Amino acid sequence: MSTGPVDDKIRAALERLGGENITPSPAFSEQVLNEVTSLAVKETKRMRRMNVVLEILLILASITSIWMLSDGDVGRLFRFGTAGSTPGSAGRIGSGSLSGPAANAVNSVMTYVEGSTGALVMLVAGILAIVCLPLRRYRASAAFCTVALSCFVLRSLTSTSFNDTGIGGSGADLIERFNESSSRRRPRREGLGPIPARVAEETNRRAMADYEQTTSEIFKEMIERFNGAGDNVTPQGRGGERYSEIVENQRVSVAKEPLSTFSADVDTGSYTNMRRFVRQGQLPPPQSVRIEEYLNYFSFPCNAGNDNVFSSCYEIAPSPYENGRHLLRLTIKAKEMPNADNVGWNFVFLVDVSGSMSEPTKLPLVKESLKLLAKRMRPIDRVAIITYAGAAGVALPSTLGSQQSAILSAIEALGAGGSTAGSAGIETAYQIASEHFIAGSVNRVVLATDGDFNVGVTSTDELIRLIEAKRAKGITLTTLGFGQGNIREDIMEQLANKGNGNYFYIDSFQQARRALEDQFTANMQVVAKDVKLQVEFNPAHVAAYRLIGFDNRRLNAEDFIDDKKDAGEVGSGHTVTALYEVTLADSTKANEVAGSLRYSSSQSTPITVSSEHDSELGMLRVRYQSPEGGTSKLIEIPLLRSSILGSAEKGSDDYRFAVAVAGLGEHLRAGSYSSAINLKTVLEIARGAIGSDPDGSRHEFVTLASDVERLRR
Length: 713
Hints:
The structure is a single chain. The longest helix has 46 residues, at 26-71. 41% of the residues lie in helices and 17% in strands. Strand 10, helix 14 and strand 11 (476-482) form a beta-alpha-beta unit. By secondary structure, it is of the alpha+beta class. Helix 1 runs antiparallel to helix 2, helix 18 (653-669) runs antiparallel to helix 19 (679-687) and helix 19 packs antiparallel against helix 20. It has a six-stranded mixed β-sheet with strand order 9-8-7-10-11-12, sandwiched between helices. It has three domains: 27-196, no CATH class; 252-265 and 285-337 and 526-590 and 612-712, Gamma-adaptin ear (GAE) domain (Immunoglobulin-like, Sandwich), CATH 2.60.40.1230; 346-518, von Willebrand factor, type A domain (Rossmann fold, 3-Layer(aba) Sandwich), CATH 3.40.50.410.
């Protein structure tokens, strides 16, 4: 009976030589000796090759395991430096022993093994496989090696009682997975549990130690960033995203300052930016919240008024957020003006194709957005495409809208690469717009960028002067913001304001369709420029007021009648909605306006008002100019005291929904008056005021507000 593969081969050789009838002789003995010698040489070579292969495989497996434990994903989870004894650190190498990579590797192995049956079996099997090699127990070594590799595969692909984690996932994710599933597992000994509590505790302790070591560096970096940001810019949001500092409007005593004056604004970028943050599971930076742009995102129709450009409406009711206050909604709506069929529009698309624009939500979305604009071009319209990335380039000369294939091909050919030099691109765009200027029509540069003007712009003030000079010649500017991480909203909004255009943040293709297709005419065709609003409150009936939003749109009272003072532009069909928090003179909050007085028992001496105006809470005034300029026109709408509703529930759907939108904005703004806002109240009001919602924007708002509430929790 054979005892191994070599014996089998010798037996087979003997059978070949003589079979069952073997005749001993010197020649036969020599033949047997030669056959056995040849077999022995071949078998020795084969065993040596197998030994080398097994040793190489085991060495590679060991190196891979050490790399994973010390520097891979698992290593980042269980990486420990030299430290003293802590709960659960028995068997570790402390600061008094080895140090550096050796201690880190040993500590990582110990942490990796404890709390996992699979890791323990894998380690023991690997050690036994190595030990069996010098003993020439090759079958046993191969078996142990197979067991070790099987354990590694199971640990990588499954998450069972045999395994503490699968491949991928951070330490926090692994611990959370264990906490969620531990209640469904049978109790086991702590030594074999998946990620025992002591590992989590030590991981947290190590993380806190690293944090303490770098705290001073972090604060130093923050101070440097703030010092380098300028007086009116605060770094917020992700990476290099920046938003302008906003000084929140405060409550004002009517007796001291009865006039409230501000510029119209129809931008919506702040709302869509908030939507981007919330959809990604984050709250927007407070400095990014401009409540008027939240309100502008929604349409509030008005039918009252005899003016040939604007209609207006208002409502006032008790505030659902704070007893003793009222909320006044003012809305003006521009009438929709038809496009002239015999006059074309002149557009120049200025596209940022720098390296930072390569992300899917940037240049690819820009191209799809520009295709929407291009498809709206009439045969008599003109369009050009300018790119900038280090230097300005003309991707498409000014072309008639009838040449759709050429326009779409130029858009499709756009590609990202290079650094950003925005000033050169803007100068080229304005030059082409000037060369093809159409008198009495729309001449507009549309800038599409992620806001990263990091090369070539030496001074924002110089850029603004250029834009203002071109605005005076009839060429306006609209800015479109894309992507995340580099958004410089502080610059983009300011450039659009100075260029008599609009700022939009495009967070999705749906928003691109809304801004550049559904509302194309409204966003591109200006029907009134330098639109200013002013409310004069009657001190006999109103003790104080606070304008909600429009924080960076305030004007001095004398600016209202100054036709040289620049203000906002309103397009065809646009609405401008403003909310005031009003404290009536006979309310319980009236005495809180000025606080306690030293020389008088009341807030002020009694105020007498002509009986002719006794029925008015105030007067809304709207002043605007035609797109061509000239003498301004004035609209006056008295705000009647009799219009005060008994409760917010009696207000229209538009009123209540506007109140909900402003409430969410105030909550996210986290300003001086946000403590009065309850998100549950905001949601309750919004859900009951959706009304007719043809585009689904109000339902979407309810979803976003619900997500904000969950994030707060």
